């Protein structure tokens, strides 16, 4: 309960600041509506079935995109951690790919993939895999020497060492990457929906913007923010069985 | 039934094609339409080039520009047109606060447009040249449409080019004293009708599917007619597609075609003339006979 | 020395001219300066030597974890150029050698991958070993929930559970109390005998070195070489009460202490 | 072979890139499409349009560097504090997670309104984007500290400040590096994106103009320049990381063959 | 007991009714079951007890690193509710307690930040201590470039360099050879005397426990309590040759061994 209070405290402060800024007219209500209006808009959304269609469309894309991105990122990082040649060969090209701006990439991608769901997922996956990839390759490249030596002694092959020693040891850090990827997947999904239209929260934001419905636009952004928090919880829930030991282990250093 | 993949930008003018599909007009013309939404000009062109779309609608000026740069595309139908003074979709707006109260005063100012090297910059250059002002002195800043009004309001830019609904929004704002500097995409004589939106396709597709293009335009004309007759149909689509409330939908003016749907080269001549005049297209680079393939669908 | 044909024919492990330097370029330090010795199957060797002389380095080389600069290690007649099969190590840094994400039983089980046995059999062996080292009831805890001595015993249990022919033990009992230590010593001796294991045990405890050994290898300061090999002709099985009072035991113990005392610290 | 793979100069990486360039050139030659410029054409454009590109690159680099620097100097301490002081972390982290997924495109309007269309608005977007990887990585890195180090710190009665600067930061640095690496590319990427959305100058502006001018060659040229910048910046980052964390990599290397 | 007013007036450290459980909810284990003892300034206490009985837990509680469930620890008359000033610890897990990003000299210097001295003086002290523990020439290496015993000695040097009044030593010599161990023992005794340090040393080596102690605290199995406190009335300074042959030494040693042997392992 106390924890819940602490977790929501920061958000409450944010809302209070918002209300102060809008109530005092510091920013024109045309561009930053009062909380009451946004709240009403959220309520109108959640009580309409149409909204939920868009909502689940976004959530589905995001979850699929994130899952695929995480699997690809970890798989490539694992293979790269196993073969030094590959790791080095991939280094500059991944550095390049990570920094290419999607607005420039999308027209080129249309050329290759056409305007299809594949394009949609490509953009999401491409956008959100890097955080996990960088974390994974960073964590997998350095390890506790004694652990690796132990594994070598007991006859683990290089692949098994990778899978059974390096990967579990890297898990806590990989989950930091996944945590970042999760929010990027949401970001990339809504941004792509804005670009390519169709269903989804991003398309709704785009429409609201074009229709000058600021309250709806902010309502949607609030909903995306809350979705971000929910995603973080989801990642934490998956993290617990895979890397929860680390939290308990580290917690021993505090007064017990 | 022939399938046509249509790429378009999701802005209010889409109502006509949406209506043509939903009301069965397309089907009646033996056409099966697959819609693809794209965000901007670059995506639109690659959508056609990659085969993701067969035809698309874009600003007429962009189609001409693309052709002049060597893209193998041609206009085969005119989506909508503009005609001064009664039929107007483009506005140049300044403010008293910024001191941009006439075209001459734009010199040396910062101007907000949706994209550089676009119809929006053409609009400023064309009107400024006509007013004897020097457009090379202004600095263009590209901003997304929804951000243009606020940029003008807080003084980030001194003038903007917009269409609806942003024009209405700016003019009715009580925070600034907006001034209409000019109407129309280009400076033109009263009564001159020129193309704004154009349906285009790759040369190759057009050569092979002229019949489809004809039926498509015929269907679009029917759709326009029915919509012009009954505004409530327009509103219904706006409400469904953009989630607009009734009031907003009603207030959204639409560039519904006023006169004829037939594409004629003379609808593009004023445009080309201004584009050449302002340096967007090199003189002699573009032959309108290549760029515009009038399809007589009647 | 020990590399004559006749001897190596029966040696399970033989080390010849082993040299090894460690450290980065400018600070490179010569650790092993030409080590020579051999072990016969079933033999129990203990290694003593001053702190920092290179005992751990030697064990790492025997285990195939370090590549010798010169010389070589033969295990079961084959040159060691990577961790060979049939060998287990208890590392001096026991606490780091336990995987913190695995519970204790899993830490033991993961070492048993080469053992040909069903899952149930393996589990039974692992439990048996944990019980033998006095950790019954702690199998489902994490290593970091155990005391130092208990962690060390998990590492021992893991090495024993693999049924390896050769055991390399780097101060495996440094962190346990005297009584447990005596028990563990007897456990090691008993299992070594029972499964005809060859053991090489590094220790700082001279009594332990004598009590456990068939032969004691005394190492010098850096660069390390074998100063002396002392045979321990005490009967086996040994017993804490009687063996330790045997005059021969006391004599050898004295000899080893004398040896060690003779090194000045570098 | 080892020298070739792990040497100071990344030969495998260079060869791989060259290979891609060759494939691109040949493919483009065969395809011979307006939309698919050849690598050689792009190279030529880089040479011919060097003046404009260089100016644009400097504009972009300046913004990215300032944005990243601001993100680093604010988020590194913040991350350490949030990781160290649990209560604060619990209060602030949900706020971070709330703001994190908002698309920069949606942040732009507010930024423009408050800060204008100059560098400030773009910087806000860049700082915004680069901050999250740095702060989240730092928080998590500080949280997974070795308990013995925490005990040492407490038994030495280090003040919170000493603890954060002398234990938390160096211990967490190897992991924070992943965040820094991400932060740098995000800074570069968002600079370009913000220049595309609100274009005045810089590589994003160059790219946008090339797009609306239907010049595929110049679009590709802008992308290639971005790629070159990225490789140089990342190379420098990796080099600094190796120097700074020499102890970390040398210690880890003990796992290899000695 | 030891909490009568008169005694605590002079006690530098006193422990009353100390209880402590560890582990997560369902697996919570009662470790300390009411520990009582006290130490006078300058006294050298050694603690012996079976592996896993709670010696480390006790030391952690004395250091203010664990919060007692019941009872309290008084240091210099004040209740300990966090690590107090004037106290240093050598942790059992010495290798993890050294900061891997700092060279050895920096690891020592780093602990001296509370010491009032100039930079040069501190450096001189740190070098002196590293030299005293036999690590001259290794000050600019990283801890992970040292052998186990050498690392342990860095940790000792660090604790000594702080000039703390109270030293808590958790098996600080477990990883060094017999000769070095003897030297370190004498070093500790000498410095404790010289600076009137109070020392509490956990060890499994009974000889060490007797040799170092003014008083030996014998702990029971879990839940741990003090079984016996054995005074060691041997004269100080002590000497490895003579003290260890003193009949009193042998008697006490025997008594402690008997005590420890009486615990069955849990
Ligand atoms: N990674 C390394 N880099 C440089 N020097 C090293 C490294 N590892 C060990 N050394 C040096 O090698 C020498 C021998 O170390 P080793 O660990 O083999 O000693 P040891 O005999 O096991 O000592 P102890 O009894 O203290 O465990 C030491 O002087 C140490 O400083
Ligand atoms: N974090 C923890 N969680 C749960 N149990 C723990 C934890 N730390 C220690 N214990 C338990 O507390 C008991 C005492 O541990 P402690 O480390 O104090 O023993 P010790 O007397 O120092 O043993 P040793 O001589 O082996 O070092 C052990 O049984 C151990 O399993
Ligand atoms: N837009 C990419 C953000 S990050 O994944 O690199 O953090
Ligand atoms: Mg060693
Ligand atoms: Mg202990």
Helix content of chain C: 25-40%
CATH level 1 name of the largest domain in chain C:
Alpha Beta
Mean pLDDT of chain C: 89
**CATH architecture designation of chain A:** Orthogonal Bundle
Calculate the mean pLDDT score of chain A and round it: 88
CATH class of chain A: Mainly Alpha
Question: What is the count of β-strands of chain C?
Answer: 10
CATH fold annotation of chain A: MetI-like fold
Task: Report the C-alpha radius of gyration of chain A, rounded.
Answer: 22 Å
Low-pLDDT residue spans of chain A: none
Query: Which regions of chain C have little confidence, pLDDT < 50, spanning 5+ residues?
Result: 1-9
Distance between the termini of chain C: 27 Å
Keywords (chains C, E): ATP-binding, Nucleotide-binding, Transport
Pfam families (chains C, E): ABC_tran (PF00005)
Domain ABC transporter (chains C, E): 13-246
GO molecular function (chains C, E): ATP binding; ATP hydrolysis activity
Q: How would you explain this protein's 3D organization?
A:
Chain A: Keywords: Cell membrane, Membrane, Transmembrane, Transmembrane helix, Transport. The complex is a heteropentamer, with 1 copy of chain A (256 residues), 1 copy of chain B (298 residues), 2 copies of chain C (266 residues) and 1 copy of chain D (258 residues). Helix content of chain A is 84%, strand content 0%. The longest helix of chain A is centred in the C-terminal third of the chain and has 39 residues, at 158-196. By secondary structure, chain A is mainly α. With 298 residues, chain B is an alpha/beta fold. In chain B, 38% of the residues lie in helices and 22% in strands. Chain C has 266 residues and is an alpha/beta fold. Chain C has 2 domains: 9-86 and 166-175 and 198-266, Rossmann fold, CATH 3.40.50; 93-164, no CATH class. Chain C contains 10 helices and 10 strands. Chain C has helices spanning 5-10, 55-62, 94-97, 104-109, 119-132, 148-161, 178-194, 206-212, 240-243, 247-261; strands at 13-22, 29-39, 44-48, 70-75, 78-79, 87-90, 166-170, 198-202, 215-219, 226-231. In chain C, the strands form 2 sheets. A 6-stranded mixed β-sheet of chain C has the order 6-7-8-3-9-10, with helices on both faces. A 4-stranded antiparallel β-sheet of chain C has the order 2-1-4-5, covered by helices on one side. In chain C, strand 7 (166-170), helix 7 (178-194) and strand 8 (198-202) form a beta-alpha-beta unit. The two termini of chain D are 17 Å apart. In chain D, helix 9 runs antiparallel to helix 11 (216-244) and helix 10 packs antiparallel against helix 11. In chain D, 83% of the residues lie in helices and 0% in strands. With 258 residues, chain D is an all-alpha fold. Chain D has helices at residues 2-6, 11-31, 39-48, 50-84, 86-99, 104-115, 119-143, 147-155, 160-197, 203-212, 216-244, 246-252. Chain D has 12 helices and no strands. Chain D is flat and about 70 Å long. Classes of the chains: A mainly alpha (256), B alpha/beta (298), C alpha/beta (266), D mainly alpha (258). One magnesium ion binds next to helix 2 of chain E. One adenosine-5'-triphosphate sits between chains E (22-23, 29, 31, 49, 51-57, 92) and C (145-150, 175).
């Amino acid at each position: 309960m106390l924890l819940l209070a602490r977790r929501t405290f920061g958000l409450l402060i944010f809302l209070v600041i918002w209300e102060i800024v809008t109530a005092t007219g510091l920013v024109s209500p045309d561009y930053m509506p009062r909380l009451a209006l946004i709240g009403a808009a959220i309520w109108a959304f959640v009580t309409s079935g149409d909204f939920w269609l868009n909502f689940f469309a976004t959530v589905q894309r995001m979850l699929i995109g994130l899952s695929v991105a995480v699997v690809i990122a970890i798989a490539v990082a694992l293979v790269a951690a196993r073969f030094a040649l590959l790791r080095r060969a991939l280094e500059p090209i991944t550095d390049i790919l990570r920094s290419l701006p999607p607005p420039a990439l999308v027209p080129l991608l249309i050329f290759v993939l056409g305007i299809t769901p594949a394009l949609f997922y490509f953009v999401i996956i491409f956008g959100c895999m890097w955080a996990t990839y960088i974390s994974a390759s960073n964590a997998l490249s350095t390890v506790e020497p004694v652990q690796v030596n132990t594994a070598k002694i007991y006859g683990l092959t290089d692949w098994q060492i990778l899978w059974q020693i390096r990967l579990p040891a890297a898990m806590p850090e990989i989950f930091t990457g996944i945590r970042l990827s999760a929010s990027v997947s949401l970001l990339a999904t809504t941004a792509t929906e804005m670009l390519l239209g169709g269903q989804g929260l991003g398309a709704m934001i785009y429409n609201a913007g074009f229709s000058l419905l600021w309250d709806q636009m902010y309502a949607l952004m609030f909903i995306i923010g809350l979705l971000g928090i929910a995603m973080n919880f989801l990642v934490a829930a998956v993290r617990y069985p895979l890397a929860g030991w680390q939290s308990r282990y580290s917690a021993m250093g505090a007064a017990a | 039934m022939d399938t046509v993949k249509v790429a378009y930008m999701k802005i209010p003018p889409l109502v006509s094609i949406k209506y043509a599909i939903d009301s069965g007009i397309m089907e009646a013309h033996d056409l099966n339409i697959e819609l693809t939404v794209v965000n901007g000009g670059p995506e639109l062109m690659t959508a056609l080039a990659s085969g993701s779309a067969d035809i698309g609608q874009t600003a007429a000026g962009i189609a001409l520009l693309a052709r002049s740069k060597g893209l193998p595309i041609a206009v085969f139908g005119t989506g909508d047109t503009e005609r001064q003074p009664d039929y107007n979709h483009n506005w140049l707006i300044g403010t008293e606060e910024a001191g941009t109260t006439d075209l001459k005063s734009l010199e040396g100012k910062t101007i907000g447009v949706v994209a550089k090297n676009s119809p929006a910059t053409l609009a400023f250059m064309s009107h400024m040249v006509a007013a004897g002002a020097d457009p090379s002195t202004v600095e263009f800043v590209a901003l997304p449409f929804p951000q243009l009004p606020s940029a003008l309001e807080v003084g980030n830019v001194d003038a903007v080019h917009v269409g609806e609904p942003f024009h209405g929004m700016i003019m009715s704002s009580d925070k600034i004293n907006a001034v209409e500097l000019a109407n129309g995409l280009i400076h033109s004589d009263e009564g001159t009708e020129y193309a704004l939106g154009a349906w285009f396709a790759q040369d190759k597709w057009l050569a092979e599917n002229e019949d489809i293009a004809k039926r498509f335009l015929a269907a679009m004309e029917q759709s326009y007619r029915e919509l012009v007759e009954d505004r409530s149909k327009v509103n219904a689509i706006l409400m469904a597609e953009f989630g607009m409330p009734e009031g907003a939908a009603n207030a959204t003016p639409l560039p519904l075609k006023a006169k004829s749907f037939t594409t004629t080269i003379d609808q593009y001549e004023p445009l080309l003339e201004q584009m050449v005049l302002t340096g967007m297209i090199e003189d002699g680079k573009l032959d309108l006979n290549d760029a515009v393939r009038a399809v007589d669908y009647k | 020395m020990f590399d004559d044909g006749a001897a190596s024919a029966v040696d399970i492990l033989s080390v010849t001219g082993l040299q090894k330097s460690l450290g980065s370029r400018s600070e490179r330090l010569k650790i092993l300066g030409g080590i020579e010795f051999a072990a016969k199957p079933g033999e129990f060797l203990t290694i003593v030597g001053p702190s920092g002389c290179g005992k751990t380095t030697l064990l790492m080389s025997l285990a195939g974890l370090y590549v010798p600069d010169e010389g070589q290690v033969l295990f079961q007649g084959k040159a060691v150029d990577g961790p060979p099969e049939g060998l287990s190590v208890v590392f001096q840094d026991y606490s780091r050698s336990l995987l913190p994400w695995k519970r204790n039983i899993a830490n033991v089980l993961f070492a048993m991958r080469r053992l040909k046995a069903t899952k149930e059999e393996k589990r039974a062996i692992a439990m048996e070993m944990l019980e033998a080292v006095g950790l019954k009831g702690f199998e489902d805890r994490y290593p970091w929930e155990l005391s130092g001595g208990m962690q060390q015993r998990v590492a021992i249990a893991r090495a024993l559970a693999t049924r390896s022919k050769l055991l390399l033990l780097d101060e495996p009992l440094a962190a346990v109390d005297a009584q447990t230590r005596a028990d563990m010593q007897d456990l090691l001796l008993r299992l070594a005998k029972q499964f005809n294991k060859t053991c090489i045990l590094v220790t700082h405890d001279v009594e332990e070195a004598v009590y456990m050994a068939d032969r004691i290898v005394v190492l010098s300061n850096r660069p390390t070489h074998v100063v002396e090999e002392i045979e321990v002709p005490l009967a086996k099985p040994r017993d804490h009460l009687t063996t330790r009072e045997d005059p021969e035991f006391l004599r050898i113990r004295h000899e080893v202490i004398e040896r060690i005392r003779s090194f000045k610290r570098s | 072979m080892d020298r070739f793979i792990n040497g100071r100069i990344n030969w495998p990486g260079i060869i791989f890139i060259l290979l891609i360039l060759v494939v691109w050139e040949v493919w483009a030659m065969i395809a011979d499409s307006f939309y698919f410029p050849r690598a050689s054409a792009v190279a030529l454009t880089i040479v011919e349009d060097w003046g404009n590109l260089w100016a644009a690159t400097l504009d972009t680099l300046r913004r990215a560097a300032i944005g990243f620097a601001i993100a680093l100097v604010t988020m590194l301490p913040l991350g350490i504090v949030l990781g160290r002081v649990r209560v604060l972390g619990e209060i602030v982290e949900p706020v971070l997670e709330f703001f994190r997924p908002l698309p920069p495109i949606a942040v732009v309007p507010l930024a423009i309104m408050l800060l204008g269309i100059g560098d400030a608005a773009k910087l806000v977007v860049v700082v915004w984007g680069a901050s999250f990887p740095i702060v989240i990585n730092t928080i998590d890195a500080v949280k997974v500290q070795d308990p013995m180090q925490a005990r040492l710190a407490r038994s030495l009665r280090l003040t919170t400040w000493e603890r954060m600067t002398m234990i938390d930061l160096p211990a967490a640095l190897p992991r924070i590096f992943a965040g820094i690496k991400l932060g740098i590319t995000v800074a570069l990427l968002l600079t370009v994106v913000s220049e595309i959305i609100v274009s005045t100058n810089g590589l994003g502006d160059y790219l946008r103009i090339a797009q609306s001018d239907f010049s595929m060659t110049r679009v590709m040229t802008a992308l290639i320049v971005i790629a070159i910048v990225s490789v140089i910046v990342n190379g420098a980052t990796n080099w600094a990381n190796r120097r700074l964390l020499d102890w970390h990599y040398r210690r880890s290397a003990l796992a290899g063959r000695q």
